[in-house]
Amino acid sequence: MFWMDTAIGFFMVDPLYIMMVAPCLLLAMLAQLWVKASFARYSRVRAARGMSGADAARRILDSQGIHDVAVEISPGGMLSDHYDPSARVLRLSPEVYHGRSLAALGVAAHEAGHAVQHAFGYAPLHMRTMLVPAVTLGGYVAPLMVILGAAMQHPALVLIGLLGFAAITVFSLVTLPVEINASGRAMQLLLREGIIYDEEAPGAKAVLRAAAMTYIAAAIQAIVILLYYVMRYGGILQRRED
């Protein structure tokens, strides 16, 4: 029966899924390796001015008139750096907070760039923040709805799942300009505030460029997964009409 074939297709390993998603997973793994390798390499290159990541972030924030954002150590460990717009806190991993390398300064400035975006009302950041609840819910609900909808021959359930995957895809696409803009701001402010010299800029850029690749890989993966489920959903409708 069709519903049984469809359920098996979703619960078991689908060759089409492997063919479409495996290259994306490989790209994501390579991007992560690139980030770690770049960070490790430039973590060994001490910035000439000797400023720590925490000091650099604070200087950047103060230079933009942002005095109500705290700079704290993140409890998440290595590369757990992030800006929390709801708490207005910039959290840096210990390696970045205390680090005085080009890698530490690049990452700290990037996260400070997000705080600057928030302070000046950067639209894509606001959009991404608004999408967070939908993405969080979609991550849990979307796969379940698609599987149940396919097993029960219930297109409406599958459509709900597709909307969840679509929200994740939109979030990944909106994230790209947010991250690229934050890196651009970071490099400008690192140089403008005299935190690094011009000849040190390539090292900081290399770390930020590698980090950007992880977001590109995530966006590609989200698009491909959405496309996969759209193709499966189209097959459900067509076979149901037959």
Please describe the topology of this protein.
Blueprint: H1 2-11, H2 15-43, H3 53-63, E1 70-73, E2 82-84, E3 89-92, H4 94-98, H5 102-119, H6 123-151, H7 155-192, H8 201-241
Parallel strand pairs: 1-3
Antiparallel strand pairs: 2-3
Helix pairs in contact: 1-6, 2-8, 3-5, 5-7, 5-8, 6-7, 7-8
Describe the structure concisely:
The chain is built from 8 helices and 3 strands; from the N terminus they run αααβββααααα.
Q: What would you say this structure looks like, in words?
A:
- With about 240 residues, the protein is mostly helical.
- It has one domain.
- A 3-stranded mixed β-sheet has the order 1-3-2.
- α7 runs antiparallel to α8.
- The longest helix has about 40 residues.
Order of helices and strands: HHHEEEHHHHH
Uncertain stretches: 1-12
Q: Give the strand content.
A: under 5%
Strand order of the largest sheet: 1-3-2
Number of strands: 3
Shape: elongated
**Straight-line N-to-C gap:** 13 Å
- What is the helical fraction, as a range of percent? over 70%
What is the number of helices? 8
Tell me which oligomeric state these chains represent. single chain
Mean pLDDT: 88
Number of domains: 1
Radius of gyration: 21 Å
Category by helix and strand content = mainly alpha
Major sheet: size, sense and barrel closure?
A: 3 strands, mixed
